[in-house]
């Protein structure tokens, strides 16, 4: 069951310029609310229509009393650019600006609102106040069209609210062999995120304090039920249950002022020799609840995984953009690869942290690479704990938000699919297809110095992620579309 994500409570406030009839704006607002209800969107309709600064204060009181945390500023007519943008400035949460289209040629005297014009002045005042609201690609429409724009805003707002109320727990320094996961944390504070960095010793102490915890048998039972016939190493489950309780108790104890929290944990090589297991399955279980646990102290990887969880309201995973698809596998499965080129394909892999709900089949196994290193010629013991198998076919979006060395935020978004082809390898793994992946790999991932980890959403949410990154102030957003986009701010995910 997904937890650890905010509930978006929408509110709509109509605005009206005093030389236009206020009743026009109010009538159009009611029509939008009715259309939202028809779409199943719960939205609070503020009764105050903003014409001046005093109305702004009244509307804010209404919104606060109703618990609204995401605001739709609706230009039912031209609108007063000062008060309407002041409303967004003083509102504590993400906001959206949208305007009413004219309904009929039969009523263009008393029924003409000129909101098409008003949006221009609103945008100028938005700039003066240095605001960053969500504005749809074409932000003018009738009640039905506006309601559909609001439906998209719900997902965008959930990402923004979640990020602004997030704490990241990290354990251990970044591994030297994976310096790509090492990025400055200053931009996290710019996003409104709290971070609590801890040592591996803190985690080890907390883990040891959970020895013989009376809740362990119940967690073991849950794991047994979830794994079913895939429970190939039942002897490791008590240690994994002890570790899961350690992380969840840390989550509850140290979240502090933040509503939500995630983890970025050191997981090798000393982890196995000291803790006595591989933590991948626990990472998968927490991700299933909306609490990503990124491997290798990948702080921005954990954040990226959380962002796609917010966007989809589904469990996400973090994978390596790992290896090429062999030519003979490509030739043997041409019918399944459709019109994808070989360079459009790659394998997404990680040791075993993908939630079981996204696996075609899954078994509790041991980490093969670590076993070679730590337990050569022995039965697996301290390297047990991975959840392995093929990832289910279907839609995916890969995404990453990353700080550069000089503290600038960059991100990428690419949509594609997992192909129903046996990857014939170990770990949690799947054959991924993304149009123009070859170009994307060279001119985005390599050119812009992105690391190997990518967050995977099991749904196409490129448009939501693009718009959310714009609202969060991420200026450099790359995507797997042709590189000749005309306008920097244009959203390619229509």
Automatic annotation (TrEMBL):
SUPFAM superfamilies: FucI/AraA N-terminal and middle domains. The keyword Isomerase applies. GO terms for biological process: fucose metabolic process. InterPro entries: Fuc_isomerase_C (IPR015888), Fucose_isomerase_N/cen_sf (IPR009015). The keyword Isomerase applies. GO terms for molecular function: L-fucose isomerase activity. Keywords: Carbohydrate metabolism, Isomerase. Residues 349-475 form the L-fucose isomerase C-terminal domain. This is L-fucose isomerase-like protein. It comes from Caldicellulosiruptor hydrothermalis (strain DSM 18901 / VKM B-2411 / 108).
């Amino acid at each position: 069951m997904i937890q650890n994500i905010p509930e978006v409570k929408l509110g709509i406030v109509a605005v009206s310029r005093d030389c236009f009839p206020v009743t026009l704006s109010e009538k159009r607002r009611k029509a939008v609310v009715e259309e939202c209800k028809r779409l199943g969107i719960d939205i609070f309709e503020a009764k105050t229509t903003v014409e001046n600064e005093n109305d702004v204060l009244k509307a804010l009181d209404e919104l606060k009393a109703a618990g609204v945390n995401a605001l739709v500023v609706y230009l039912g007519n031209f609108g007063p650019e000062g008060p309407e943008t002041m409303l967004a400035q003083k509102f504590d949460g993400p906001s959206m600006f949208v305007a009413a289209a004219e309904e009929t040629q039969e009523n263009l005297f008393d029924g003409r609102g000129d909101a098409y014009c008003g949006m221009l002045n609103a945008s100028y005042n938005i700039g003066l106040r240095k605001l960053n609201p969500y504005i749809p690609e074409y932000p003018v429409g009738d009640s039905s069209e506006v309601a559909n724009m609001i439906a998209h805003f719900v997902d965008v707002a959930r990402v923004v609210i979640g990020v602004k109320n997030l704490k990241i727990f990290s354990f251990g320094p970044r591994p030297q062999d994976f310096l790509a996961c090492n990025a400055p944390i200053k931009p996290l504070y710019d996003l409104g995120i709290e971070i609590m960095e801890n040592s591996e010793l803190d985690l080890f102490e907390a883990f040891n304090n959970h020895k013989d915890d009376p809740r362990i048998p119940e967690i073991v039972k849950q794991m047994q039920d979830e794994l079913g016939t895939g429970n190939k190493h039942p002897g490791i489950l008590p240690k994994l249950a002890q570790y899961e309780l350690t992380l969840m108790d840390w989550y509850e104890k140290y979240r502090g002022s933040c509503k939500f929290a995630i983890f970025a944990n050191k997981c090798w090589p000393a982890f196995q020799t000291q803790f006595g297991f591989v933590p991948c399955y626990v990472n998968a279980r927490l991700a299933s609840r909306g609490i990503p646990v990124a491997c290798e102290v990948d702080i921005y990887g954990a954040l990226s995984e959380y962002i796609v969880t917010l966007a989809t309201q589904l469990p996400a995973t973090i994978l390596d953009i790992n290896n090429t698809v062999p030519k003979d596998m490509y030739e043997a499965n041409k019918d399944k690869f459709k019109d994808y080129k070989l360079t459009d394909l790659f394998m997404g892999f990680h040791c075993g942290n993908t939630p079981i709900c996204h696996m075609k089949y899954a078994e509790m196994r041991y980490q093969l690479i670590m076993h070679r290193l730590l337990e050569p010629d022995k039965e697996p013991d301290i390297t047990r704990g991975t959840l392995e198998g093929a990832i289910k076919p279907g839609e995916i979006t890969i995404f990453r938000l990353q700080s550069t060395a000089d503290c600038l935020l960059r991100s990428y978004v690419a949509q594609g699919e997992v192909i129903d082809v046996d990857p014939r390898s170990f770990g949690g793994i799947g054959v991924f297809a993304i149009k123009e992946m070859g170009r994307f790999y060279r001119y985005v991932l390599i050119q812009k110095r992105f690391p190997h980890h990518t967050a995977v959403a099991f749904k196409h949410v490129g448009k939501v992620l693009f718009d959310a990154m714009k609202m969060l102030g991420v200026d450099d957003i790359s995507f797997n579309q042709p590189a000749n986009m005309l306008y920097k701010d244009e959203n390619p995910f229509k």
